[in-house]
Amino acid sequence: MAYEVILDQKALDDLRAIVEYYDGTVHLKNFRNRLYRRMKSLETLPNIGKEVDGFRKIVILKRYIVLYRIAEDKVIIRRIYDGRTDYKLNEEGK
């Protein structure tokens, strides 16, 4: 079964901030490629991430943490954090 991968608004905001930070650098292309591949893998392997505080977590480029939940046939990405920050969330994904 293929899952639909969705980025909620906070994850989109996180992604925009990362893109703005890396704009014009080679790191942006690398980040986007890795994020895309990881999101594609969640379509078929949604349980790949480690469970943390009620969410699942995958790491991209040893630095970015993607937190998500599985809901029926969807993978909902809640946040995309720099791993050097405090990424703990409450139940609403804030």
Walk me through what this model shows.
The protein is an alpha+beta fold and 94 residues long. It has a single domain, classed as YaeB-like fold (2-Layer Sandwich), CATH 3.30.2310. Helix content is 35%, strand content 32%. It has two helices and five strands. The protein has helices spanning 9-22, 26-44; strands at residues 4-7, 50-52, 55-60, 64-71, 74-82. The protein has a five-stranded mixed sheet with strand order 1-5-4-3-2. The longest helix is centred in the middle third of the chain and has 19 residues, at 26-44. It is globular and about 40 Å long. The mean pLDDT is 87.
Task: Map the helices and strands.
Elements: E1 4-7, H1 9-22, H2 26-44, E2 50-52, E3 55-60, E4 64-71, E5 74-82
**pLDDT < 50 stretches:** none
Number of helices: 2
The proportion of residues in beta strands is 25-35%
The side-by-side strand order for the widest beta sheet comes to 1-5-4-3-2
Which properties best describe this structure?
about 90 residues; alpha+beta; YaeB-like fold; 5-stranded mixed β-sheet; about 35% helix; about 30% strand; globular
Provide a compact summary of the structure.
This protein is an alpha+beta fold.
